[in-house]
Amino acid sequence: MPFTLGVHESVDLIFPPTVLRDALEPNADSGDVESSDADSIDGSEVRVVGSGAELEACDALVTFAYEDAFLTSGLSWIHSIQAGVDRFPFDELESRGIRLTNSTGIHGDAVGETVLGYMIQFARRLHRYRDRGREREWAHPEWDEPFTLSGESLCVVGLGTLGRGIAARADACGMDVVGVRRTPTPVDHVREVYTPNEIESAVEDARFVAVATPLTEETRGLIGADVLAAMPESGYLLNVSRGGVVDETALLEELENDRLAGAALDVFETEPLPEESPLWELDDVIVTPHAAAATRDYYRRIADVVRENRRRAVAGEPFVNQVV
């Protein structure tokens, strides 16, 4: 049966829509997908679309943004190119019979390497050298500032794909890794797993706390004043999840009062981060523009997931990564 898949123009924030469209065309190179069955859908079509009539011509949509028009365009399936789907109205989608899938499970290596990079920058003071280099300033750090990651402690809050990717890389550097997850079952590369109600104990000895949990009603504000106060003054907070998981006001207060050593933040309560935010000016804060998962192969990974679900949609099979 014919099946029209739209690639929404909003994905341009991450990669050109045409690149993903071409990767999803029938008989395109399927990359990591071993079978060609996912590409053999007779009459299928992939097109780049905006809004209005272009949407109404599609059976399904791959998108970065959410628009209310998606609810009334006759779509049967929406795929988010991000793992986070907190911007989508689950109840409305379900009531209209629109299935929602996401891109969880594909960013463990990219995000893991980003977090490793944050920790190396802080440990080896690379961020300070870069800042001073712009001023042509040749200056050594204080003798007791630089350190190595081996033997340092890391608490990973959230042990899904992202958290496990972080933990594996930290463990390879000789770090002592603990984690926080709802079910305290053992996880590779993690010495001890705590439950969320034990989070203050989990972070109390951690030089680094990496936040990698999805934003839900349960995790909103999870890293608040009490948790930040439980961290040691030598601690660094690293957030690659969602801005709403961390109480940004409380974090800023801790940083400005030198109650924490620093922070690396990829996500914020308001994005883009407003120009007037004090976070831009703090020496030991690294700001990245919600780009922890960025990689030149991002679109290929999205295409693999969407291609399989396109096949399943036509075959009437359950989706992978279905949220609603």
Automatic annotation (TrEMBL):
Residues 59-323 form the D-isomer specific 2-hydroxyacid dehydrogenase catalytic domain. Residues 116-292 form the D-isomer specific 2-hydroxyacid dehydrogenase NAD-binding domain. It comes from the Archaea. Pfam families: 2-Hacid_dh (PF00389), 2-Hacid_dh_C (PF02826). GO terms for molecular function: NAD binding; oxidoreductase activity, acting on the CH-OH group of donors, NAD or NADP as acceptor. Keywords: NAD, Oxidoreductase. Belongs to the D-isomer specific 2-hydroxyacid dehydrogenase family. NCBIfam families: Dhydh_Halo. This is D-2-hydroxyacid dehydrogenase (NADP+). It comes from Halorubrum cibi. The lineage of its organism: Archaea, Methanobacteriati, Methanobacteriota, Stenosarchaea group, Halobacteria.
